[in-house]
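REVIEWER CHECKLIST
Item 1: Sequence provided? yes
Item 2: Single chain? yes
Item 3: Sequence as submitted:
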Amino acid sequence: MIQQKSRVHVFLLTLLMFQSTLAQTTRVYSEPSLEPPEHQVDMKHMRLEVSFIPEEGLVKGIVTHIFTPLRKRVDSLFFNGPGIRVSKATLNGSSVKFSSSAEGITVFFPTPLVWDEADSVSLVYEATPRQGMYFIGWNDPTNRSRKQIWTQGQGIDNRYWFPSCDLQNDKLTTEVIARFDTGYQVLSNGARLDVQNNGDGTTTWHYCMSHPHSTYLVMLGIGKYGIEQRMTRRGLPVNLYYYPDQEDRVEPTYRYSVEAIEFMENHTGFPFPWESYSQIPVQDFLYGAMENTTATVFGDFLMVDRRSFFDRNYIYVNVHELAHQWFGDLITARSGRDSWLQESFATFYPKLFLRSVFGEDYYQWNRRTEQNAALAASEKDEFPIVHSRAGSDRIYSKGSAVLDMAVYIWGEDAYRRVITHYLQKHAYQNVETNDLYQAFQDVLGITPWWFFDQWIYRGGEPHYRVTYQEVSLEGRRDRQTQITVEQIHQTDDLIKLFRMPIVFQVHYADGSADSVRQMVEGQTERVVVPNPESKRISFVLFDPGGYILKKVAFAKSFDELRAQALRAPLMVDRFDAVAAMRPIPLITKRATLIEVFGREKFHAIRSEITSQLLQDPDPSSKTVIVAALHDKSPEVRRTTLGEMPIIPENMRSQAEALLRDSSYTTVGMALSKLSAEFPDRIPEYLGITRADKGTGDEVRVLWHEIRARQGDRSSLDTLVDMTGISFEFRTRVNAFASLKRLSYVNAQLVENLFQAMTHANGRLRGPATETVQYFCQQSALAPLFLKYYHRHHWEPWQATMLEKVFR
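Item 4: Structure as written out by the authors:
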């Protein structure tokens, strides 16, 4: 009995200690403000009827919400709708009282609503939104801009153009009925039920969702488009919108679109969750793209021709937004705290798809790029992924790397079974991180708390120091390799020692290798790799393939790096060896780098080699540089040309060949460098590149800048014109930068800059503001901007933006 009491006492003491530790940890990373918001009713369906006066940025609408109360008595209901003007409210068809505030509309019920009864509220309203809905090109006096209306609802911006209970943790079916000019296409969520010509120059478009989704995913896209229709093998209709004047861009832009859908269906084990899928490009989009349910909106700067494809294509973004149709739309994070369940998955799956298209090396490089972004974020702070200040490099890149590690630890087949179960169990519902955790328990019978705790709920990444030695066993002929691993990162209440299974691989001079996989979790651990035949070690790999997100200090001799660069099975390990040679003298490494360059095909290794050999005067290195300028990979050509401090006369012809490169970015780089080095040949260079434009008119802007430097006034006028509202934002930003380099300002540029400084798109607003601040530092130019600022009337929202510069 005494012994049993002692055990009980020890157990209770241990439990209390565990609870105390848990409470302390919770205080470190818990954010009560990120708990899902409360709501009084369960929204079931929304019917939204809208029309527009686009020149005024005006929305006219009637919205009807059908819902059931979640409380025993509900005597009023609040609808988010900042700035929305409601003229009438009805409850189940009868007029009721309402009041408006800065944040929305409160509807009052004559008698309280009760459980288990469906009710509906309708609101007749008008809105002139500056967020959520954007009217593009309607105020262009030259009538050159595309004319569009499009929406961007994430996170809570749809509330600015229709009243709603704008909650991420409440899902409902929606239908949108939009009336607009017959000459335009209208796209919204779900199945298109009807298109009716009204006989007055307008058409009414009716779309409806058959499954529930969150209100931030409701969308509208209106503009002049052609539509290419494709079909998956399962019969899913895919509608690809494009500008009629850019039909040649359909194939390079939408390449692999159908294949990506079929890949996602196969890899998740869950068919595409909706009735159709559409994609539509829009001008001046705020981000890269947005995964609205059944209808992705993306920036038209990603609508690429066959040459822009080599600079930046749409494939990755395409698959990212497609993956959101499952992770984000089908299942939606209950609150912003768990947004990694959407963004990390949508970052993870494009890597897998691109591997299926471009190969294993491409996948390894994408994975390494994500890891570098996550590690860079930890140089600034050490917030966990589930934290409001985690930042995009964690929510996107680190979360994706965490999923890679889950596959690495438990295997791809097991991971896929978990995800299929997770999607099936929570389809059309809200989820939180614990739901994913439970899926691992339910499907695999494991308890991966240690994995979730260190990678999701805690911050930081491991930093390992690795050393090894060969050991002869006493009285035996065989040997072994003893590898010592130390975790040398700082630990605290939030960051602990990491527990991870790690592969240790010893490669021998005869080309063979031995490896072991061992769980490493202590401060210092020793791993033994048997070498029964006493082979001579060539090099040792710690975590071959770099699957674990980490920093590593592992000193290696040049001979080891050389062997690794030439013989490591995986590209990323060969790259690491080449990159580690940077501090090694050229006389030592030159021959090896040249040999590796001749063997390797992947652009990252070839670019790294040319970067290290670029300053080497040796003829053999120069031969590599010339080959790199003609490399089949545009990345290698760009790296080589971009890092050349000058173009010597004996390489002029090779550089001039790049004026006809398949990549617009390379053409622009060559035009800029050659014009600076060989000014007497500028007319020839301008003649060669006269017809080139590039994404965001990058080549065209540079072309006019070079002509302007030659005294051509018409090119100055063209550059100023390109900063105006007739052009999409990337062209405007490029033109700002060009005129800044030219130190040229006129009255039209001042007007264009002020318009850009008050634009909804921050990626235009920011560069415009920086350009104005640059010019205002010059005493001769500052008065032009100050005078314009003081002579114009500014709306309060404009004044708020501008006073940051002119306070």
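Item 5: Key structural point noted by reviewer: The longest helix spans residues 2-29.
Item 6: Recommendation: ____
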